[in-house]
Structures are given as structure tokens and as C-alpha cells.
Design brief:
Length: 208
């Protein structure tokens, strides 16, 4: 696997493209909570030891990297976009993910000239873009976005645990663990569950 670095960014910088944003999301698969996207514009001299695909990092490391990345002056800028569970149910998860990414780019303090997107192209984004499969492990811009999106979403789920403690959102972050599925069967869905997802839909009809 290519080492996570700035090769995509450097190529674009060398062609005269000054502002490049990496984009990634967190939360497409869970049964509850939002999908969260982040967009990050790195400075040309950027370096941060340990930054990589957020899925490969322990939670404590992700939290430390998040604090560093969001310290004023470390980045050119970052933006966060959120699509709530109700929007996921209304639009479907793919379109809601695109909406979150669009909101993240709009939230940037500076608008980028080019986007590096993890995975496949995003048709609702209007800037030129390069889609990179596994981009969160190849591009530091995308890796930074993956960490910011993941930590933002995890913190939201921990806060929701206090409102809906029956589902252990502080532990499972909304993913369909065996214990989470069992609690759905016992208690039915709560307001932040995605009713369009099959395991939730099945229990929703049992309780209504």
C-alpha cells in the first residue's frame, strides 16, 4: 500500500493548483446517528506524525490528532458537514453522504480549487475533483478529513448516549453490534435510528 503522504497534493500544486481540499466521511454503515463529512485544506509545508486513515488508528490517537489538526494555524482550513438520520431516511445513505460532503466544502473558510475525494467521484461537488480509492490511506489531506469526520461523529454519539442510554452509543457509535441489535429487539428504535435501514425497519414495525 502506498504510504500516506502528499504526492497527490504535490502533483496538483506543481501544475499551478493552489488550494486543494481532501474530503472523507464517517458513518455510512451505522444503524443510528448522522453521516459526517469533513473537508481539509493543508498548507504546502504540512506534516503531522502518525496521521493516517482514521480506521487504522486507536481512538486515543485519533483524539490527539483531531486536537492538533483543529488548532488554529495548523491547517489552511477545515469544514464539517452533517446529514442527520432523518435526511438519510428521506434521501438514502448515498445521497445523504454527498449532501454532507457538499456541506463540508461549503463550510470551508476558503473555497478550494480542486478536491481529493476518498472513494468514488461525488457528482454534487462543483469543483474539479480526483477520486482516490483508499484515499484516506494515501493522501494526507484525505486522512486529515477522515480523522476530523470520525472524531466529530464519535463525540456526537457519545453525547447521544446520555439521551438514549439503552443502546450503548458510547461504545458502538451506532453500528449494528450484536448487543445493539438485541437492544433494538427489546426496546425498538429511538429518534436517531435510521428507519430506512433494514434491521431498524423490522423492529420499528414491531413497536408501531
Amino acid at each position: 500500500m502506498p504510504r500516506c503522504g502528499l504526492r497527490f497534493e504535490k502533483h496538483l500544486w506543481s501544475t499551478g493548483v493552489p488550494l486543494i481540499a481532501g474530503i472523507d466521511e464517517a458513518g455510512r454503515g451505522p444503524l443510528a446517528g448522522p453521516v459526517v463529512a469533513a473537508a481539509v485544506v493543508l498548507p504546502a509545508e504540512f506534516s503531522l506524525t502518525g496521521l493516517n486513515d482514521s480506521k487504522l488508528l486507536p481512538e486515543t490517537v485519533r483524539e490527539q490528532l483531531f486536537e492538533t489538526l483543529t488548532t488554529p494555524g495548523k491547517l489552511v482550513g477545515y469544514g464539517i458537514g452533517i446529514a442527520e438520520s432523518t435526511e438519510i431516511d428521506r434521501l438514502n445513505i448515498l445521497r445523504a453522504t454527498f449532501l454532507a460532503m457538499q456541506r463540508a466544502v461549503t463550510a470551508l473558510p476558503v473555497q478550494p480549487d480542486h478536491l481529493l475525494v476518498d472513494g468514488l467521484p461525488v457528482p454534487v461537488l462543483h469543483q474539479p475533483q480526483t477520486a482516490i480509492v483508499g484515499g484516506d490511506g494515501k493522501s494526507l489531506s484525505v486522512a486529515a478529513a477522515s480523522v476530523i469526520a470520525k472524531v466529530t461523529r464519535d463525540r456526537m454519539m457519545r453525547r447521544w448516549h446520555s439521551d438514549f442510554p439503552l443502546y450503548d452509543f458510547d461504545q458502538n457509535k451506532g453500528y449494528g453490534t450484536p448487543a445493539h441489535l438485541e437492544n433494538l429487539q427489546i426496546h425498538g428504535p429511538c429518534p436517531i435510528h435510521r428507519r430506512s435501514f433494514a434491521p431498524v425497519a423490522q423492529t420499528y414495525f414491531l413497536f408501531h
